[in-house]
Structures are given as structure tokens and as C-alpha cells.
Amino acid sequence: MGIVQSVNLAVVQTGDWTGRVGRSGIDKRPAGGPVRFEHAGVHGDTVCDVKYHGAWYQAAYAFDSEELGYWSRELGRELVPGNAGENLTLVGCDSSFAVIGERWRIGGAVLRVTGPRTPCRVFAGFWDVKGLVKRFSEHGRTGAYLAVEEPGEITAGDAVEVLSRPEHGVRVSEVFALKMQDRGDLAEHVAGGLADLPEKWRESIAARVQRYRSGRHSTMA
């Protein structure tokens, strides 16, 4: 399915762009060796805004090297592994098209795809790009949040092996499109994957599905 280009850990930054917390771990840099992935998160990483990050279903975040290349061309500057705030930079994986609930073995760990990343002002501030939240949302390739089912070490060069894939076929990008792109045509399809979403996200997406079913909807921020 692909390989790990790098495993990345936070270098905590401060500044006006970091928002209400005043510090952020979105700036991640490649580790020099194996990194242990635990149920609670990635060993050696730092989560600053625990209100919106760091839940068990956000234990790790994967983003594609190909997407870093896309944004490098869009912005006219080179983005390198870790620049999207990802713990895992993947090559040949297309993590945005992974199925919700899909399970991966990477190195000594087993990870489960839980949902899309939603861009925020801190992300836009880190890249220093006005309007990035809108542009990133319109592009729709968000990468994937991951839960850790079996802790273990992961290092650059490890293969990504798909262990199982739910039959509902609801992709990370489709959940995001329903939530952020007003894609009501996906509502019934996404409803089939609700059971594999973490409870907090399940409730939000289920409410969105119900609004489409009843003919009432508004774009979620």
C-alpha cells in the first residue's frame, strides 16, 4: 500500500499564530530512529491544545508526501515531511482515500483509521497562508487520523500493510466532504460508516446526515 517516508515529532513553537493556547506542536521534524506509537499517542511528540487534539482517536496523524508536493507547487515553496503537522509522512498510500475503520500494520504497530483532519487557523498561521483553511477544505485531501490498536515502534522505510477494510467503503475524504464541502449527495453513503467513527465525531456526522434527510442543512465550521 505504501511506505513510511519519515516519522515526525513536534518542536514546540510559540507566537501570535498559535492561537488561544499560545504554543503549538504542529511543527514536526523527522526523527532519527524508531519511534514508539502508544494508545495515548506518539512517544516524544507534544500536544499543546488538548481540547481539540490528543484524544485516543487522534493518537497519530498521517499525511501523504504527494500532497506535500501538491501544496509546494501551489504555494511556490518547498514543504518537507512534518510540515503538515503529521506524525507519519507516507509515500504511495493516499491516506485521504483510506476507509474509516481500516486497520494498518506499520512496523511493530497496528493502527486504525478514525477520520479526517479538519484544518484550523493555527495550521494556516503555521504555513502563513491567508485563506488556507478554505483552500485546504476545497482540495479535500486531509490525510487521516489514526488510533493505536497495538503499540509498537515505527521507523522510516516501514511498509504500510492493510490488515482489514470495512465493507461499507466510506472513505476519509467522503466524511470530510459531507462535513466541510456541503456534499449532501454523500449523506446516505457516509451513514453506512457511522459505527466506525469515534463517538464524538459519529454524533456530529449523524446529525449532519439527519439534517440532509430532513432537508435542513448548513455548512459546519
UniProtKB/TrEMBL annotation:
The record's annotation in InterPro entries points to: Benzoxazolinone_Detox_Enz, MoCF_Sase_C, Pyrv_Knase-like_insert_dom_sf
Every copy of the MOSC domain together lies at 29-163
Q: Which residues form a coiled coil?
A: none
The record's annotation in Pfam families points to:
MOSC
Question: From the UniProt record, which GO molecular function terms apply?
Answer: catalytic activity; molybdenum ion binding; pyridoxal phosphate binding
Write the protein's name.
Answer: MOSC domain-containing protein
